Amino acid sequence: MTVLKTSMRNFFAHKGRMALSAVAVLLSVAFVCGTLVFTDTMNTTFDKLFAVTSSDVTVSAKGASDDGETTSGNGRPPVLPASVVDQVRKARGVKSAQGTVFSTAVTVVDADKNNLSPTSGAPTIVGSWNGNDARTMKITSGAAPSGSDQVMVDADTADKHHLGLGDEIGVITAVGTHTAKISGIAAFTVTNPGAAIFYLDTPTAQRTLIGEPGVYTNIDVTAAQGVSDARLKKNVVAEIGAGYKVQTAKETADANQKEVADLLNVMKYVMLGFALIAFMVGIFLIINTFSMLVAQRTREIGLMRAIGSSRRQVNQSVLAEALLLGAFGSVLGVGAGIGIAVGLMKVMGSVGMKLSTDDLTVTWTTPVVGLALGVVVTVLAAYLPARRAGKISPMAALRDAGAPADARAGRIRLLVGLVLTVAGAGSLYLAAQADKANAGSLWLGLGVVLSLLGFVIIGPLLAGGVIRVLGAILLRAFGPVGRMAERNALRNPRRTGATGAALMIGLSLVACLSVVGSSMVASATDQLDKTVGTDFIVQSDSGQLFTKQAVKAVKSTPELARVTEYRLLDAALTTPDGRTSKKEMLNAADPTYAQDLRTKTVAGDLADAYKPDSMSVPEGFAKKHGITLGSKVQVDFKDGTAGRLTVRAITSDDVVIDKGAMYTSIATAARYVPADSMPLDLLLFATAKDGQQEAAYKALKSALHDYPQYTVRDQTDYKQELKDQIGQLLNMIYGLLALAIVVAVLGVVNTLALSVVERTREIGLMRAIGLSRRQLRRMIRLESVVIALFGALLGLGLGMSWGATAQKLLALEGLNVLEIPWPTIIAVFIGSAFVGLFAALVPAFRAGRMNVLNAIATE
């Protein structure tokens, strides 16, 4: 009880100094809890949506996927004949059965040809309006479509694009383009996560999406009262046979949820990873805070020991303060985490994914995880200072001698740090020398962890040398004030090392990712320059396949010398060694593709792969299956027949674009795949006539004006798009790393603030002999800057070594160019100096306000 009272008194006596440590705990816990609440809410939203929209039993064609996506490579969904609906209705336990049609391989445009598809990545769905849809949609204005010239749109899409009754829209599918006017607007009765939905009447949907009447993509079956979904499914299968896909509502919802869960899990664990990095940085802050508080209470600890307190009780007193700090910061962090989750939902809403706070999900595990993590991390971080406090002898403490220096512990620390650093460097070397990316990545991960731990442990040793160099370069210009700042930073190397290490962690990751990102862009750009021999690449950023009308529009552009079609076909391959690869992808293209992509070969000429009944295989596949030029490979085309193709070329694995691709001609594929099953084009490559590149570029864009789902890019555009995509990814990662850097800045602020208190008498004496307030504040700011730059140097150096090693692994995948983004590295280094200045503002201001006489009288 006495220990608890002492801890409470000390905690509240230093509440201002504890506040920054509490904020570090709060931020880390808030990010963990916010991530858990946000992803749980997303899961709840989709669970509700899929549960409500799924009929008791759904019947679809055998080729339909489990998650409900029914569109095939030819742009049209696999279908069921209308006769199956009548068969289903005869099954026992069926209350009703209704055929429906829908597709997501669509583009919907307004009268000005603006794309109405969501920008959030959610699907655009066009389907027939029926009773199952009426369970989740309520018509708020107008009426449901009742003719070929009518369409109904969901309210969210109408609001976003300012659509109203009577407005004309166009539905672009593989069949053609259908125009209609809005007859009604329907609002979701459940949360819509962002899909754009358009409804046609059933006959119009059949003609527009499939191109033939009397067929359906799905049959929605409702069970009679008292009949379970599982029983109904068995009865339906017994009636119609096994040639169809039949799923219960739970099976359909689970399949849909699995698609969403895979994406959410990636997001969840990435965000939690950055939260744990922030926790790691916070450990240094907490260690420094308690180390300095213990040092400032040395005499108090001596008195406690003199009147009978044991080492264990002193230790427990410090740990009890840490427990209070962790609990306080964690409780606030849980609340802040819920706020972060709501904020993330608002952000998602701004990009088109609607999430309602009505579905906000806070499970009991979220606060438990937040509290446990915050408290455990805080107590563990305070253990070493607490242990040192307990080792102070009463007489030494009463003399204010502090904790005795432990030379043996220092030597052990140095030895361990050097061993880890050398082991980390060795692992990075082995990663750089690896022949396979998988093996190298394991060495890289081990090297990153070991070298980071090694630098953290030997940080105090490095602090002396690095800060002296920085002082000689930066501080000497400030005269005596600069020299005093340097000595202050060197006074306690362990403290300086821990403070710099907190910044080092975040900045090392920034440097590493910057090197990797820049190298990827430079390598891909180099590959484009070397291999791409066409002027323009035309594709859909959302993955939409090309309609025949769009291909015709491109080929009709008079300024073009040639247009190459490119499509993908699924096939099973039986190789000369007798083995069968069931899921392979063939890249079918026009023969001119050999000019558009100058792919290296290790045997044969790629142009020969486009001869009749010919193909190419990649180098690794050829070695694995004993294939040489002239070998025969049996190709069983999906939705087609089998053919024996002759291998005319073996392509190199030392490429980036189309690495591992197997090529054949579209004409060869057409011999074995019926026209109505032939996949549509994924890409088009266009080459301008000599001297007409600029005119062809404009003409191509004009030709595709009616098809806004496709984008025309020349090589400059393509390189910029690649750079922008990697840049956006890096910016998102930098944003997440900012959490760790903010916590590190708090550590610098706390260290300086406590250091000022620790040096109160010294500051008073310096003021008494003539040091001005301005000089005092400058001294503290310079001390902060040099500590920040120390952490930046270690972090940037470590991160660049990681990035260079990672690039060696990327080189195994064909990304051969190492590029150090010096502007970014220099900007981060300079920015670190400003971080140091910012961190010193409050401590320097408080130091400048000290009363000289009171400071001198301080004991």
From TrEMBL:
Stretch forming the signal peptide: none
Keyword Cell membrane: yes
Ranges for domain ABC3 transporter permease C-terminal: 274-394, 736-851
Transmembrane residue ranges: 269-295, 318-344, 364-386, 414-432, 444-475, 496-517, 732-757, 782-802, 822-845
Domain MacB-like periplasmic core per the UniProt entry, residue ranges: 19-236, 499-700
Main location: membrane
Membrane-protein topology: Multi-pass membrane protein
Protein origin, superkingdom: Bacteria
Keyword annotations: Cell membrane, Membrane, Transmembrane, Transmembrane helix
Keyword Transmembrane helix: yes
A Gene Ontology cellular-component term: plasma membrane
Alphabetized InterPro entries for the sequence: ABC3_permease_C (IPR003838), MacB_PCD (IPR025857), Macrolide_Exporter_MacB (IPR050250)
Region (Disordered) residue spans: 60-81
Localization: Cell membrane
GO molecular function terms noted in the UniProt entry: transmembrane transporter activity
PANTHER family assigned to the protein according to its UniProt record, in alphabetical order: ABC TRANSPORTER PERMEASE YTRF, MEMBRANE COMPONENT OF TRANSPORTER-RELATED
Family the UniProt entry places it in: Belongs to the ABC-4 integral membrane protein family.
Name used for this protein in its record: FtsX-like permease family protein
Organism the protein comes from: Streptomyces nodosus
